[in-house]
Amino acid sequence: PALAGISDQYMFGPDLLVAPVVSEGESRAVAFPSGKWTSLWDGKSVSGPAMQKVSVPMDTIPVYLKAGAAAPVQPGRTLKFGDSMTLGRSQALVVTLTGENSVVSLVNAHGGDASVAVQSGDNEGGWTLKNLPEIEFLLIYGVSAASMVIVNDFALQKVQPTQLAAHQFGWAADPVSNRLIVRLPQREAEQSMPVDRIELRLAPKTKQGR
Prior knowledge:
6-stranded antiparallel beta sheet; globular; 1 helix
């Protein structure tokens, strides 16, 4: 009820809190509902309920991910939100850890039913992607380090972010955005049965979040 009267911010779907900049200045107040909210820009987290003043550079609209979020996005090839899409788009899934299990229903690129099952523990997380073969990248926010990333029972190699951009499968840390970038192996073109189920296990070296 305390948030019902706030007219200058909104939920975009079930997982994204958006707070547009509607007045001049370098900051604005954001009202956070209960739970943990992680910035889509720098991966910093806020625990709600809370009212907090946040920085709003000219090229940034405050967007926060709910705990347990699983939202499909199409960033540019750099995987940095706000960058040019002249060189094309990437198919990615933005996720955050949560303290409980859940299933998020989605629609895939072909208009079919899809889902993401989210599992989390104190020092690990898992996502099972069903009927989402178009997803190239998993962007795990609020996590800056991992001991192992496994996809379909196969341990991926840790590489540099530039190697992921060069179509090498693996995972990399992105400390600027406080996230992990995972490039998912894609199915072979000659396979007669599409691979539409991806399992990933994450074991951070330290507890995620701030």
